[in-house]
# Entry
Amino acid sequence: MGIITRDSLLSLETYHKERPVFREKAIKERRLRTVHLGDHVTLIFENEFLMRYQIQEMLRVEKTFEDAGIEDELNAYNPLVPSGSDFKATMMIEYPNEADRKVALAKLVGIEHKIFIEIEGQARVYAIADEDLERSTAEKTSAVHFMRFDLTADMKMALKAGAQMMVGCDHKGYPMHVQTLPSETLASLVSDLN
# Structure
């Protein structure tokens, strides 16, 4: 997996023309790579295509065509592109009611460190969260976290050989929500590995 470079991006004009197809593919890809843990925690497993789409959208919305602005977007989103030996995910804690969300974010301090993946026959891998900046305090966690799950060579081999993978949470305030990945989701994630 390579990082996204300025030279690999479409111009604003070209992206404008190709956006409907790009957007439709991004919606399908995001849906495929979304995992719900219970009713309130959602993980979107990012990949190069989704980050490329995000960068192109930000450049379009902000009408950015200057080098410095483009570099800012690349620097913001490239860290979410998997390296070939990890999975990267955006985690969202979602409560429709603001009062409920406020209570939950106070109750769920540290949840970002209690999200795991477990590959059949392998040890759990807990997320390394928010490497860019701390998003939690002692009083509350953030509604959005960015995470990385590092994989060993054995884990990668097991996944490529057809092992199943679960995603879960074992935070005391949101205990043992586990989701076994659908085969299409797992296949998409395995395509990130090299």
Q: What stands out?
A: The chain has a mean pLDDT of 93.
